[in-house]
Each structure stands twice: as structure tokens, then as C-alpha cells.
Amino acid sequence: MKREPIYVEIPIEAGIDEVWEKTQDPKLHEQWDLRFSSITYLPKESEDSPQSFLYETKIGGGLKVAGWGKSIGTHDKKDGSKTSSLHFGTDQKISPISEGKGYWRYIPKENGITFLTQYDYEVRYGVFGRFIDLFFRPVMGWATALSFDVLKRWVEKGEAPRTQYVRFFSTALISVLFFFVWFYQGLVPKLIAKHPEEVSLFSSLSSIEGAAAVQAVGIIGLLEILFAGLWLLYRKKRHLHALQIFVFPILTASALVASPSIATHPFNPVTFNASLWVLSIIGFLLAKDVPTATSCKRTRKGDSK
Known about the structure:
CATH superfamily of the largest domain: START domain
CATH class of the largest domain: Alpha Beta
Helix content: 40-55%
Radius of gyration: 26 Å
Low-confidence stretches: none
Strand content: 15-25%
Shape: elongated
Largest sheet: 7 strands, antiparallel
Mean pLDDT: 90
Number of helices: 8
Structural class: alpha+beta
């Protein structure tokens, strides 16, 4: 099966020289590119020699991948565009990538430039490596696209990449937490345990009792699980946060009306819902204008895919 090279394209409202600087200066490049933790240029043998560099990528748990690269910048295109060709690789066995090649292009447009990249690589470990690449390649494409959007926002709005990434990963972490909360609350107490307190609270509010109350609680559990899925699938997280800011006080008041004594229980709905309410407000504020890989074009012009 033929592998498609990774392609990412984004428009940037800025001059070509500014984007060139932020992508060719290693200290600026490593700030916005999620794929690299550090980039170090090596001395050139001559002015016309390719620029060699070393890079490191931290992958967590104290592990990191170190590799090498060579780049050649072209400045004299007749249409005013620039191209930077890249040859890269690593000898570390922990990396599925062994060696690859690609390029960056900077194409002047009426209101700025189009910045794009295309690259491909060889994998190690034969058939097993190609299987791993079925998952690894989309992640690399996503990381490249997200990085390009961070660069775009840095150039156009002046917001530092570090601030953008803190906001992005904080928003993602909060979303995963809310997914877990709603999924767990819907599945365990309502569907699996059919907890008597859940049934009792529902009965107090609705006057429905017995098997009908148990069934209704189960339906509520299913709805909570579906809402949990929205935290992973729905892109506009601010809408979900806004909904929760409105809903959590209502849920807390309803629980107190149904059973005032629960306010004295350890880890009770009052403190639990208050915590989630505050976290929803924080998430609502953080989720404004978060960088996203979806702002990039991921296929070449004329590509049917």
C-alpha cells in the first residue's frame, strides 16, 4: 500500500522575510514546532554548504529522540517564493522514522504568503514498522498542522507559542476530565450499580417510584454518556463549558431540594458540583481562540483525497 506524504498548507498574513526568520532561526523554530524540543545548528564548512543541525524531541518519561538534519535554502525564485529543502533522520531505535526528506515553501500572495510543507520518511522494523506508521503518520501530520497554526497566530497576533500551547493542552486536559466525569457518572452509579440514592433523588423530584424510577435513572445515565462523548468529538468546547456553567447550579439546587441532608455528606454534590462549575468557567475562558490543526489544508491542489 502506497503511503501518502505528509502535506500541510496555511495562509499567513505577513511578509515572507518575517516567516522565513521564524522558521529558519533555530531558536525561534523550536518555540513553535511541536515536533522538536530543541534545534542546534552546526558550523558550516562554507557559505554554500548545506546547514547541518541536531535536534531533540522529548516524548515524556525522561525519554527523548535525537537526530540530525541538513537544510538548503533557495532565495532566488523568479516569482519571489523561497524554498527550504530538508534531509533528516535518526539512528535511535525508539523512533519509527529512520530517514526522510521534505521541503518548506514560502509563496507570496496579495495579503501575505502561503506557507506549506511536504515530507515523507522511511520507517524501520519492516512490516511491524509500517503497521505502527498507520497510527504514527496521522499524528505527525496533526502535530505539523497544529504547529503551523501556532506559527500563524504568533506572526499575525503576536501571541507567544508557549502561551498558545499552555492554553491548548490545558483545554484538552479539562475536556478529557469532563469526559471521564460524565462517562463515569452515567455508567457506574446509574447503569451498573443503579445506586439507591440516585433512584431516591430522582423519585423525590419527579414523584416516580419503583421500577419506573430505576428505568428513568438508566436513561439519564445513557444521556450522560452521550454528553461525555461530546467532550471528545465536539470542537467548540466553549459551548459545552457555557452549558455546564448554566447547568451545574441547577443540578446542585435540585439535589439539595430532593435531599437537604446530602450537604453534610463527605464529597457531597455541593462541593463536587461547585468544583466542576469553577472548572467550567476556567475552561470557558481558556477555550477562546485555541490553536487548531483544522485551520490548515492537508491535501495538495488537485489531490482527490
